Structure formats: structure tokens, C-alpha cells
Amino acid sequence: MSIEAINEQLLRAIGVGVSLLDLADLRLRFINDTFQEWFGEAELGQPLTELFPGIDAAEVHKALEAEGRYVGETSFRVRRRTLTIALTINPALERNERVAVLVCQNISRIKELESMIDSYSMMVERNTREIKREKEQVERLLLNMMPRSVYDEYKTFGVVTPRLYDDVAVICLDFVGFSQTVKNQDASVVVSELNDIYTAFDRIGDQFGCERIKTVGDTYITVAGMPDPSERALQSVVDAAIRFERYLAQRNRSHPIGWQCRIGIAMGPVIGSVVGVQKYIYDVFGPAVIEANALRQAAEPMQIVAPAALTEMLGEAIALSPAGTIRSDGGEESDIVAIRQVDASEQG
Amino acid sequence: MQQTLFDKYGGFSAISKIVMDLYDRLLDDDDVGPFFDDVDMARIVDHQTKFVSSLMDGPASYTDNQIEKLHAHLAIAARHFEQLALILRETLLAHGISEEDATTIVGRFTERRNLVVNS
Known about the structure:
- The complex is a heterodimer of chains A (about 350) and B (about 120).
- In chain A, strands 6, 7, 8, 9, 10, 11, 12 and 13 form an eight-stranded mixed β-sheet that branches. A five-stranded antiparallel β-sheet of chain A has the order 2-1-5-4-3.
- In chain A, strand 1 (about 15-20) and strand 2 (about 30) form a beta hairpin.
- Chain A has ten helices and 13 strands.
- Chain A folds into two domains: about 5-105, Beta-Lactamase (2-Layer Sandwich); about 160-345, Nucleotide cyclase, GGDEF domain (Alpha-Beta Plaits).
- In chain A, about 40% of the residues lie in helices and about 30% in strands.
- With about 120 residues, chain B is mostly helical.
- Helix content of chain B is about 65%, strand content about 0%.
- In chain B, helix 2 crosses helix 5.
- The mean pLDDT of chain B is about 90.
- The chains are: A alpha+beta (about 350), B mainly alpha (about 120).
- Chains A and B meet through helix 5 of A and helix 2 and helix 3 of B.
């Protein structure tokens, strides 16, 4: 067998569709078996543009002149399958005749895989967006439960080291006659009222640099001076407490259910920590919280009380009046004062 | 967290082979294939990718309502459904999915029979 004959055999048997074209009019001069298999209706002498209507002869000539080759793609259906063929035309010389070699490669599987990757990446992207959204919701929830710096520690290390904070100012507030209100009113009304009031307290507290720690039924505890220390911690809680009371007084004038609060204010050390493993909560406890709670119990309706020992630290805009004494766990009696804001008429 | 079948069998790189094989088998099948006669290749591949992913707890999921709507315009008979279940099972086994897991996956598919068989 001659070299030429072997070449032709090879050309015929190769898994790539090959055709020789007349360069002048792009008619088929030779097609191999694969080409015939893919394009059953192809005949020698047929113009390429007739076989592939998507190909423009002028564009092929232009590309061959400018870049020395033409690259294109064509898709068609064979039964229910889409075949995509990549076409490359390179000019050649055969016995001084100007011909071009058309090489066709079946890239259907590549196209199918591309479609699958597109589909998969869109699924993954959507999932990633959902996970991000859920993560943000969890973060918001956790930030409602603990200060950001504590949350950051929890996120980084998975645990929060209990920490002692000095000079933390604490507000402990509850409502007079709450049990009776719960009995007399529909549960959903009580929850809605508390939600409304606590939301307002949170907003007021936030304005004065307080961090709400928790609510237990009608008891509301907020602090200032932690996790970051503040020289104005006591002033912050006093300012907030006065606004809490003022807000309630105003609210009571326009709402059917009247709420009378009692507020205890104290200052001292507290421990802040995440408590619990699965049902965890950020909590503060310690002397200042215990004292604020005791002072709350000693307060009259719509009264704010604080230890008399803190008097010096309070500004002049605050009016203080003796409010009796409380007895500590150790049995010691100490004076307490009632706090209210000085009216404009009292000043100067 | 329990490992999903999707992860157990090697994630997307392994599952993609199942998807492509299932695609070939479905198109070559004379019972089920005609449903894809006039459907664009990208849509068929997208459908198969999501189909296999959702059955194997991958990053896709369909509600019953979505499945019902997607198939409402197709005249799917019980024999088509059975044939697809058979092809799915053969494809899974051909790619090293264990008998037990293949039964689970095909079971998830056949659970939804009433959502798609409508003629």
C-alpha cells in the first residue's frame, strides 16, 4: 500500500470529521467516514454553505485572508440529541490547486458538561445566598442575646470566658400588679403590650449607651459600662431610667392598660458570661445586679431608687429625696434615695 | 450532622458522571426519550442535574407543588414512570452506588409517582 493510500485510510478512519474543500467556492471535494456519519446528507460537490446554512461564505474567505484560518461552530439535532460541531478551515495546496481542509470535532459532550456546570453552579450560588441569609439571621438573633464583642469572641473561639466587669451600672425594672394584669387581660394583649414597651426601652437604652441583658416576664434588666467601661455608666442608666418612666407616663395617658414601673439602680461589679451549652444565654450576675433587684423591690410605683452612696456621682440635674433604707443580705442597713429629674421651674 | 448521599459518593465530581450517564440513557430510551424530543439540550441537562442532586440530598430541592407543575403538561403514564425508575436504578448501580442506597434514592423518586403520573 502506498503512503498516499495509507494516508487516505487514516483520514477516513479518524474520529474527526474531515473534508477537503475547493477554496474558491467552498464545495466539498472529499469527505471522510466520520464526516459522512455526522452529516449523512453531505455529497461531493455540494457547497459547504448549503450543508451548514449558518456559515457565511464571505466570512470564511475574510477570516482565511485575515487570520489564515476560519473557526466556527454549528449545532443540529440528531433525533432528540443536540450535536455541536466545532469547525476549523485551514487553506492548503494540493498539486497547485487551492484547497482548504475542514476539520470537524464533536464538542457535544463539552457543551453538555458546560450546561451541567452552569446548572450546578447556579444551584450552589443560590444555596450559598440562602446560607448567608440564614447566617445573618442567626447573627442578628445572637446579637440580641449578647453584646457584639462577646459575640465576636463566641464566634472566634466557640466559647466565652466569664469576665468580671467593675463599675457596671444596672437598671432592674418591673411592673406593679403585673400578676393581676396577666389574669385580667388576654395573653396576646399582655405580650403585645410588653413587646411594645420593651422595644421602646431598648431604643431609649440604646440612645444612652445601655445594653439590655434580659427580660424575665415583667422584669427588665439593662446595664451600662460593659463590656466596654464607661465613666458615664451611672449617668447613662439614670438618664435611661428617667426616660423609661416618662415614656410610660405618656403612654398610660393614651392606652387602656396603665403600666406602673418600679426601678432600682445600682453600681458595682458584675460577671458577664454565656451560660448553658445548647440553650445558652448571655447573662450578667453579681453584687450590682442583686442590689439593683433589691432596690427595685423597695421602690414605690413610678419611682426610681438608688443607693444614697451614689449621690455624689449624680449630676445637678437630678433631684434626690430620701427613700428610706434597705437591709443587705449581711444585715447592714443602708440609705436609699429616690431620683427624679429636676423640672425647669426648679432650676436656677 | 449526618453525611448526605451526595457527599458520601464524592460530591459533584462523582455525581456529574451519574448525571451524564442518566442523560444518555434517557435520550436513548424509546419509552422515555420522546418526552425530550423538543426540549433544548441545556434544559434537559439542567433538569437531570437538579433531579439527581435533589434525590441525593445535593444542593437542589423541589417542593411537591413544583414537581407537579413542571410535569403537568406531559402525558406521563405509569409505564413511563416505571421505566424511568428502572433506568435510574441501573445508572446508579453502574456508578458504584450500593444496592441499599440505590433503593433509597429510587424510593424517593417513586414516592412522588402521584405528582407526575397523569394518564
